Amino acid sequence: MEFADLDLSQEYSYADYLKWTFEERLEIIKGKIFKMSPAPNRMHQKLSREIFGVLINFLKGKTCEVYSAPFDVRLPRKSKDDKDIITVVQPDLCVICDPSKLDDKGCLGAPDIVIEILSPGNNKKELEIKYDVYEEAGVKEYWLFLPEIQALLQYVRNGNGRYAGARPLTEDNILTTPILPGFELDLEEVFGAL
């Protein structure tokens, strides 16, 4: 089966996704197929590498783990059966602190932190659709990096399960999170590497 053979008006599940063998990278969000960028540009890759490096070093010997794309994050609504999961995403990076969510296929359930790096052409998907998906799924923090303007939007779930107003950060800031006590991401260093 080729990607062109798919009926994009149909609803798909993770069970369908597992059968596909075409080269295109895809995500399924609420049953609908979203084509991912073919390959991230160099700036995207450098930024991802910098953030991953800081996280991997900080998390050594800790329960939380960081993973980079391609890594399937399945966000079940009710049943955890593959045929019932209609949202599977591949965030650029994610931090999972509950080892029971990890299996050979990736992550089953909401990561604690999802990190996306905005790519040209994915603006609407990252800014609107994924924001809603991550909030609904229970992702505690969603970090959206905007490499073109060297900024980061840090969304944090409040007591009502909603993301509070985005905390914009630039190269003058250091990112911290209560999820990872003691963690600091110096944005001047991260963006300076670009």
From TrEMBL:
CDD domains: DUF820-like. Pfam families: Uma2. Residues 15-188 form the Putative restriction endonuclease domain. This is Putative restriction endonuclease domain-containing protein. InterPro entries: Nuclease_put_TT1808 (IPR012296), Restrct_endonuc-II-like (IPR011335), Uma2 (IPR008538).
